[in-house]
Write a structure and sequence with these properties.
With 538 residues, the protein is of the alpha/beta class. The chain has helices at 17-20, 31-36, 38-44, 79-91, 110-116, 179-195, 238-250, 266-269, 284-287, 293-309, 326-329, 351-365, 396-400, 447-450, 457-470, and strands at residues 11-15, 48-51, 55-56, 68-72, 95-100, 130-131, 154-156, 162-164, 199-202, 257-260, 280-281, 315-317, 371-375, 478-480, 488-493, 496-501, 507-508, 513-517, 527-528, 532-537. The two termini are 28 Å apart.
């Protein structure tokens, strides 16, 4: 029986629908493709799926510009396709979380079209952040805020007013002090809860309320941990919204959840996961940690302690759709660094070393108490497409900055399912080109190559997920051990001890039976090789 608070120790797999599996052969992944691969996901051993946006959208930001929160975009299928996918996941014992994008709508949302067709001061305009400009004729933006995707955060319309968009011009910010906005999104929650979804990942959860006077701000506005300070982020009133949402979820039982995307310092993040607000928040400190034992241990200890203050469990995540995959980051000369992108003109990662380290770090990650989030393809060891020509890049950050912001396309490349098939089996039996090009190297990472190979990355993930469940590691407690070197970590969770060697020289292993290893040759002769890890059974 699944515990009602299943999220406390769940392993949740992020599906980026446009890049997971294309069932209809148009080069774009879809919901039918997810349904087609549910057996694969169940065999992997994950507890839940999180789907990035599949709603109706003009796709100016890959679906994070929502035109209709209650319908599926034809690119991805229909509501019936969603219902079949949801039922199929539930039949296999997997929960389903959907993305919710409340900070802004698409400029094609009916509300924004009504706002443009209505006069200044109208109820239709009041749903968004419309303001008069500065200067003698209102020709200057209302303040100096900059878009996360580059350029001013304000766009002027024909009658002279300006509207705020902290992201793309096609993503106008809603005014969350407006009761109509709050009521609408509570009804959106009920729409999906009524269909049976198990939770929501809340996009830009710290951004919905802005300081009322919208003052100028000269500080950072980038989406990095701790960088989101100032009058446009993390305002106290945002917590009123989540308390109300918490009550909405409770209408459907005690097994529904929310997880916050909030790029903030840990002491601020925990305010989002108090008992009457959300259940989880992403742990971006862990995602951003470098390949250093002391840094990793400090992040782990601080994360667990912070979450415990409010009775929550922490989350562990190493990659997602917004940044360079960790298999590539860990192959850089500064392993774990978080570049905006890796392009052909940038330092190229050591692909083999990055994969070796990625296999080692998952052994630490899946041994930690709490909940782990996996990004599609990491179970294959996928790197970024680091040599993608700029002509293929579609990310609005890349387009709005003329390439200065490299964009996130490299981590969003469609998955390889069959090594010898067109598009590596991503587009089922079709000749259509995938929406982003796949590197030639993806052939050796394909699922069919790894499926039955006992030492493949896919097999490693399957084994670790099974052991994690067998030994109840998600609900355990950590005990740190004295390490023989500064670049070695030793930590126990119940009967399992993890030894992670972040250095290059081998290290002697303590007593215990090796039940999992990051590489078959890593633990020979009671020594652990460099950039490798083992699980020992005491």
């Amino acid at each position: 029986m699944i515990h009602p608070q299943w999220w406390r120790d769940a392993v949740i797999y992020q599906i980026y629908p446009r890049s997971f599996m294309d069932a209809n052969g148009d080069g774009m992944g879809d919901l039918a493709g997810v349904t087609e691969r549910l057996d694969y996901l169940a065999a992997l051993g994950v507890d839940a799926l999180w789907l990035s946006p599949f709603y109706r959208s003009p796709q100016c930001d890959a679906g994070y510009d929502v035109a209709d929160y209650r319908d599926v975009d034809p690119l991805f299928g229909t509501l019936d396709d969603f219902d079949r996918m949801l039922a199929g996941a539930h039949e296999r014992g997997m929960k389903v979380i959907v993305d919710l994008v409340p900070n802004h709508t698409s400029s094609e949302h009916v509300w924004f079209r009504q706002a443009l067709a209505s006069p200044s001061g109208s109820p239709e305009r009041a749903r968004y952040m419309f303001r008069e400009g500065r200067g003698e004729h209102g020709e200057l933006p209302p303040n100096n805020w900059q878009s996360i995707f580059g350029g001013p955060a304000w766009t002027r319309i024909d009658d002279g007013q300006w509207y705020l968009h902290m992201f793309d011009t096609g993503q106008p910010d809603l005014d969350w002090r407006n009761p109509e906005v709050r009521e609408e999104f509570e009804n959106v929650l009920r729409f999906w809860l009524g269909r049976g979804v198990d939770g929501f990942r809340v996009d830009v959860a710290h951004g919905m309320i802005k300081q009322p006077d919208l003052p100028d701000w000269d500080g950072e506005q980038v989406m990095v941990e701790g960088g989101n300070r100032g009058p446009m982020w993390d305002q106290d009133e945002v917590h009123d919204i989540y308390r109300r949402w918490h009550r909405v979820l409770a209408e459907y039982g005690d097994d529904r959840m929310m997880v916050a995307e909030a790029w903030l310092k840990p002491e601020r993040v925990i305010r989002y996961i108090r008992p009457d607000e959300m259940q989880q928040a992403f742990n971006f400190d862990y995602l951003m940690a470098h390949w250093k034992a002391d840094e990793l241990r400090n992040v782990i200890d601080r994360s667990i302690a912070s979450s415990s203050e409010v009775g929550a469990t922490t989350t562990w995540v190493m990659s997602n759709h917004d940044g360079v995959r960790h298999a590539s980051r860990l192959g850089l000369s500064d392993p774990g660094a978080r570049p905006q992108k890796i392009g052909a003109e940038d330092e190229q990662p050591d692909e083999a070393l990055g994969l070796r380290r990625a296999r080692a770090i998952i052994m630490l990650t899946l041994a930690l108490p709490g909940s782990a989030y996996l990004y599609q393809g990491e179970e294959l060891g996928l790197p970024d497409h680091t040599t993608m020509p700029d002509r293929y890049r579609q990310d609005p950050g890349f387009l709005r900055t003329g390439g200065e912001d490299g964009g996130r396309d490299g981590c969003r490349v469609p998955l390889p399912w069959r090594a010898d098939a067109p598009a590596f089996g991503f587009s089922d039996g079709a000749a259509a080109e995938p929406w982003l090009p796949q590197p030639v190297s993806y052939a050796r990472y394909a699922v069919d190559i790894q499926q039955d190979a006992p030492d493949s990355t896919l097999s490693l993930y399957r084994r670790l997920l099974a052991l994690r469940r067998d030994y109840n590691l998600g609900r355990g407690m950590l005990v740190w051990h004295v390490s023989p070197r500064d670049d070695v970590m030793r930590v126990s969770n119940g009967d399992i001890t993890v030894v992670l060697n972040l250095g290059s020289a081998p290290v002697a292993l303590p007593e215990g039976q090796v039940i999992a290893h990051s590489l078959p040759e890593a633990a020979g002769g009671r020594e652990l090789a460099g950039n490798a890890a083992v699980w020992l059974l005491s």
